[in-house]
Amino acid sequence: MRKYQDIEAAELHALLDTQQIYLIDVRNDDEVARGVIRGATYITLSSIPSVNFSQLENQTVVFYCHAGVRSAQAAAFVADQIDANIYNLRGGVLAWANAGFGLTELK
Hints:
Blueprint: E1 5-7, H1 9-16, E2 22-25, H2 29-32, E3 41-42, E4 60-64, H3 69-79, E5 85-89, H4 92-98
Parallel strand pairs: 1-5, 2-3, 2-4, 4-5
């Protein structure tokens, strides 16, 4: 049984203005260099198993990548580790851009 849910770009965009969401970008360095969703934290997919996510217990966490495949893997892994509202951005930054939303530089 899947312990995370998919979220659409428009729904995520609306939620970013109304509640605290922890965005985690799991793309590679060269992809992240092209821009991230505002407020995102960058953690490579290969690093996910070594990160302690316990501080995000009972929070809303959204993982994303280029097209939504790698972030679904990250979401599934973390959903097995903590009790939180975990989402995967369906379609990744491709869907985000296609919905007309921009990217910013990683800070």
